[in-house]
Specification:
Blueprint (H helix, E strand, L loop, with lengths): L5 E8 L2 E8 L2 E5 L1 E4 L11 H6 L5 E4 H6 L3 H6 L3 H5 L5 E4 L2 H6 L4 E3 L4 E4 L6 E4 L1 H11 L3 E3 L11 H22 L6 E6 L5 H14 L3 E4 L8 H11 L9 E3 L5 H8 L5 E4 L1 H7 L2 E4 L2 E4 L19 H4 L3 H9 L3 H28 L2 H14 L5
Parallel strand pairs: 4-14, 5-6, 6-10, 10-11, 11-12, 12-13, 13-14
Antiparallel strand pairs: 1-2, 2-3, 7-8, 8-9, 15-16
Helix pairs in contact: 6-7, 7-8, 11-14, 13-14, 14-15
Amino acid sequence: MTAKFSFTLHGSDGLARLGSLHTRHGDIRTPAFMPVGTVGTVKGLYLDQVKETGTDVILGNTYHLMLRPGAEQVAELGGLHKLIGWDRPILTDSGGFQIMSLAKIRKITEQAAIFQSHIDGKRHELSPERAMDIQRLLGSDIQMQLDQCIEYPHTEKAAEKAMQLSLRWAERSRAAFGKQPGRGNFGIVQGGVNARLRRESAEGLKSIGFEGYAIGGLAVGEGQALMLDTIELTVPHLPMDRPRYLMGVGTPEDIVESAARGIDMFDCVLPTRSGRHGQAFTRFGKINLRNARHAADPRPLDPESPCPALSQYSRAYLHHLIRSGELLGMMLLSWANIAYYQALMQEIRGAIEAGRFEEFRRATKEQWKLGDVAP
């Protein structure tokens, strides 16, 4: 294990960046996609399968893990890495997004977010200090500040209020993070879709100083065009020598377009959630295995993929499993989707390194558009 947390920028092609994030549990190649392991599991997959897809880092959720099994319990069992059997980096979010989704059963004060558990209704208080304490107990390699995230649409006044509170919480989160060799603390830029607020948030976070910077408060209903516009007006205010993480995004197209705008890290539940609902992401675009047209199709999803879920099972069989409600179908499609996402990230990194990112971007989007209609 390395004792130093750092980021190396290897090169760029336009605004797209190629780098490595160094942590005590190994390196993360960027641009990187982080499968979401909300409660210590990437739903439907063994962690050995997750590794085999080329995943360098997974995400754990502070809110869910604090409720069950509890951060202190995880620490007593040796930390999250040991508990789940994952020896590569883990990023934990702070719980801010879940607090937003609990609007009907939570209250935001200057001190903390006060909410009821969605499991048993018990009252909890999550302050910036407690959020960092939980993440330290979990032992994650990248720990996010506690922030206030708001949904779209919103007023400028509401966005500014949440952004300013997030900045004050950022200072407290940074102080609470303390010294943790080999681990990093990321600040989160808020401000809705307002250029002034995003700039003020980024500048405020830089003055505090973090190992990395995230763009939060997007993919919350604003649509892709507005999301990309907000990324474009935010990125110029972020340090060149620190990683940039776009939280909760997204579709393969979202990732390609955001990487083109200088984003280094992504996470999203979409690959596994879509897999559980019968949808596969492939280099031919999105395929809905529930559709009757797949019932007699003997082809695999992608015969050239090294992932068995993509190359060894017929569409007819996958269609049968999904329509029958079989767990195996959900597991196979979740595996296929994570494998495709990681293959896409590898292609993005290769294209940046070769100086042909724009060519790759155009060709990939064109292939998605053409689709994969059976002959």
